[in-house]
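Structure tokens please, single chain.
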Amino acid sequence: MNVIKESLTEDMKLRSMFRAQLLSLVWILFAIVILIRVLYIETIKHSYYSSLADRQYVSNGSFSFDRGTIYFSDYKKNPISAGELVSTYRIAIDPVAIKDVEGVYKKLSEKVSIDKNIFLEKVSKKDDPYEEIAKGVKEEDINYLKYFKLKGVTYIKDNKRFYPQGDIGAKVIGFVGNNGKSVRGQYGVEKYYNDILDRGDSSDNINFFAELFTDIEKSSVSNIDKREGDIVLTVDTEAERFLHQTLIETKREWQSDVVGGIIMNPTTGAIIAMDALPTFDPNEFSDVKDPSYFSNQLISGVYEMGSIIKPLTMASALDTGVIKEDSKYTDTGSVVVDGRKISNYDGVARGTIPVQDILDHSLNIGIVHVVTLLGRETFQKYFKSFGFGSETGIDLPTESSGLVKNLNSNVFVDSATSGFGQGMAITPIQTIRALASLGNGGKLITPYIVDSVIYKSGDVKKTIPDEGIQVFKPETSETITRMLVHVVDKALLGGSQKMDHYSIAAKTGTAQIAKPGGGYYDDRFLHSFFGYFPAYDPKYVIFLFHTYPKKAGYAAATLSDPFFKIVKFLISYYEVPPDR
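Here you go.
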């Protein structure tokens, strides 16, 4: 019996020792795992958590964020910041950790304006380890304070979106808004490229201790599929600034409701400048009372453009061969089409005249004659090929496709009026895209605003312009260009705008503004102006418009001066060599 008891006791001892050894082994393995994870986080993940610490708010209900930079450029292709993050700091204290209250206050007050009574009140809250005492402190002031290693004082970085150019290019850039939990691009490039610019907010942050026990493989490849980067625009800062100032002067002089303009490379579609008024300062967007100011009228606004459309009608006829550059027609001053009377701007019958006069003197009856020769179906086919009624594909949000039901109408008068720019409403970006085909050899190109994306990985994705769609023959482009140069040299304001050393192809437009309930105002007009140069190898196409200019007759009077100011600026700024 004693032998059995001794055997059982020995067995129990062995089992107990085994359990103890096993438990010790488990704890050792657990400690090794923790040690490995700590080493992993402190070495491999050090930069990640360093960045995380910069981004993280300590106070409840607040958040920080990171976001890519948006750049304009200059004529040498140097990047110029248009949208960036700037850092300010909040200062917080831990009342329990502060022993020298007077000393800490004195040192802080050297760089930060802090009411002493408020500071003393906060430092007395010994049961609260976090009390904010200052916000919006500059980084250089924080660096100064950090040098003194003030015990109980914490500095928390805040990031804020800042737009160095102010309202210059605001319609293109847009802004960043937040809902109290996260930020997102609103309008413009900020919205269209939000997925590239966005780099998350504090809601995406991973807790240090949660990371410690997270599967290593999963944590190391998190966010691997997201391509974050900076955006470089095709927009030139100085060209944008000059266009902006020109629009301000034009609006001030003519008291226009809306005024806008685009400068584009007619061969590639790269947008050099784009702006419209009224506008806003994206740094102060919350102060804007009318949200329509945020919209980019050049992309989403639709207008009846008037006589700047006539060169497209003429080019269509030249391309089919129904007229030639030296053709003539009989102008009757007015004509009734499908029961509707159409007249020249002055109602004057000019008799038998060259078709060049249709463009020189902007004759509606001449365009009716041209559309008649083309035929309704052929005319509509050409105008649809110019992109009217379709989005251009520009990389900006909320683009409109326009209102062009006249181009699907079986009634001839609808085509006749569309031929001189009335009865169909199109966007400015559609307009400049179509008009660029007159000078670039007859190609419909895709306009674009982003030159390149610079990814965080270091990869650069460059925008490659498309080859364009051939909408009419290169010979047609050369002929219509020659006719538009004649407009500037001989007809526009009596030929006073002719430039001796530069060939400019251009056309003006004046259109009645449609009433909301139908019909047209008798005293409200839209003025437009487009042109390109050097005419036979154009590098720049310019489009300007404004609505309801006061005490003004025709576009030649209100937009010739702004147009040629821009031309002369571009010649000087880009050092464009003479072409004649």
